[in-house]
Write a structure and sequence with these properties.
Layout (H helix, E strand, L loop, with lengths): L3 H18 L3 E11 L3 E8 L4 E8 L5 E7 L3 E8 L1 E8 L4 E8 L4 E11 L12 E51 L11 E7 L4 E2 L3 E14 L5 H7 L8 H10 L14 E6 L2 H8 L8 E5 L1 E7 L6 E7 L8 E48 L5
Antiparallel strand pairs: 1-8, 2-7, 3-6, 3-8, 4-5, 4-7, 9-17, 10-16, 11-12, 12-15, 12-17, 13-14, 13-16
Amino acid sequence: MIHKHHILCIFLILNAAAIFAQTPVQVADLSFKLNGKTAEEFYYSFAEGDVMVVDFELAKGKGVQFEIVELPNQIKTSQFTAKMTDYRLNVYSTKVYLFRITNGSGNKMCSLHIKRIPKSQETLNFNTGWEWKTLYDTTYTHYSEDSLVGHDTVHYVETLKEVASREMSEVELVNNNEHVHSVGYIQHHNPRKYIKIDLPKNQMFSNTEQRVYGWAYWIGVTSKKSQVIGKLLKGGSSVIPGIPMLKKFLLGTVADLTLPEGTDIVYWYLINNSSDVNNFINGQYFSYVTKGYGTGAYSKFINDNTQGTFYICLHNKEHEHWAIDVCVQAVALVETITYKDVDYPRTRIVPQYVKVPKVRRNITSRQVRVPVDEDK
């Protein structure tokens, strides 16, 4: 039989346990101010089996956003409130909890009281603090890498274009005797004249190339006061070179050309722009490539100024009362290059690779809040 005093002891023990289970332990008793759009965060640890008891109140104001989060990211409650009385939350495992109070506007005074009701005597003195713990996360990246396994010798044929032949041909650009007026007292002619020279265009075909090797010009006064006419009348040779002689000058087989020895003078300009030619004709400012004056002149261009259009401009500037005649000759040499395809046997060493699967381990670290380990 169970004695009465045994029953009484059991009753007292159960009653004490019940009283103990309902006795809250204070975790935090806080008063703080929220200024403007700010937030306050508080972290506390709770033991498995605890019952969390929260009281929150604003001194005044419409309310704030109040959140309780079980770390790392499980939201237990989130509400807009100005007062929370005896809010209870069961703790199912030992964790750190975040209490976040977010203000929308204005200044607010807040009070926050947090308590815990332990499950048993064993967790009565549980440390509600927390500490940082470093966690390491490992991920694996699969990739492939080329691995050299040997070399192969590859035989092939390389086709190169080589010069098969070169031919030089002449192109007569101009061979004129120009009459350049004087200003005169009555008719007032324009004492300026120009001759347009279009150079052949460089062209490239599959196995043929045509390019302007160079060009040359000769200018000479041939009017009556020049000794050119005098020599012709007396049976002497003319100083006018002609296209063949001009070609030799361009090739360098003739170093110099003869110029007239008369007293008539012409001003000449070499221009490469049509707008400057118009300015020259109208007596306005113009640009030029080269210029000179006298009874004549000659020059040649090789490698540069061999494309486009040029103008030889003549000005009867010295003679107001009589016109002058000026001979203008120009020739271009066009080089035609013919290519042939020549095959050459070649070899090259080619490395041989295979794809090798590999795995790269990536370790990253992060810090988390955890309850204090009092056994360390």
